[in-house]
Amino acid sequence: MFKRVRKRLVAGVVAAVALTSGAVVATAPDAAAAGTTEYVYSAAMGRNVPVRIISGGGGAAKPTLYLLDGLRAPANNSGWLINTNVDSFMVGKGVNVAIPFGGGGSFYTDWQRTDPKLGKNKWETFLTRELPGYMKRKYNSDNRRNAVAGLSMSGTAALNLASRHPSFYKAVASYSGYPTVTMPGFNQGIQVSVMEMGGDPTNMWGIAPFGTWTANDPFLTANNLAGHYVYVSSGSGVGNRNAALVPGSANFDAVKFAQMVPLEVAASTSSRLYIARLAAVPGVKLKTHISPDGGHWWDYWQDRFKESWYTTFKPALR
């Protein structure tokens, strides 16, 4: 079994240099999306961070859901807004939603050093202290019922944040993430993905496998999620609704297939290993969706987000 896993890992590493999880193929006017874009100052990063915020409405203090973007997250928008309708879906749900822009290649973590290309990344501090403080002051977030979700790179990050801050987050969802950070293959794949964005991965968590790599591995810190709501999903890599990924289709795209299928195969391998690990953690309220189809793309993640809302976030944040 280990040999089979290693073969899949190698495929994932090779494909990592072409990560497309945050790629943008369309643009949407700002006014078309629900909520407002506001600029939240981060003292840790020394700059204003644009955040799309969907208010949960007036009245009593509200829970908050944080949605993180993928590897190629743009600085002035989010793939969630460009490629899905989850913003309008969340209107009227009684939950504040915060969607930060930027963070491409950062894994939404606190880097050890400022990177010449990716700059000063202190996303963990921003997401667990600075942005929640803003949400409490302006949107009456209770900072007690919090959840975080992400896809691909940020699926890994969401599980890491929830594991490192179990008293802050009640629920977490990973769509096509890679939560086995220090395992052979995945470790190299994460480093390659950071380099693909122009960053130096040693500036993030130090020289692997040393530094703080193990402290940021959701697989190793899974015990911290005891009693939490967790949702994990991945597909096979082939999206039956996306003709570009179906061999033999008139619209088959060999380049997209070569990029996206190995990514989802690797995500499926990592997610399955992580699910097996969570099975040994007491009290985890785990929901999974490991499907025989499903590409490494937004149509799949949009569906999985909506499913996770009903199965995981809604019961956790009530």
From TrEMBL:
It comes from the Bacteria. Gene3D superfamilies: alpha/beta hydrolase. Transmembrane segments: none annotated. Residues 1-26 form the signal peptide. Keywords: Signal, Transferase. GO terms for molecular function: acyltransferase activity, transferring groups other than amino-acyl groups. PANTHER family: DIACYLGLYCEROL ACYLTRANSFERASE_MYCOLYLTRANSFERASE AG85A, ENTEROCHELIN ESTERASE-RELATED. This is Putative mycolyltransferase. It comes from Gordonia amarae NBRC 15530.
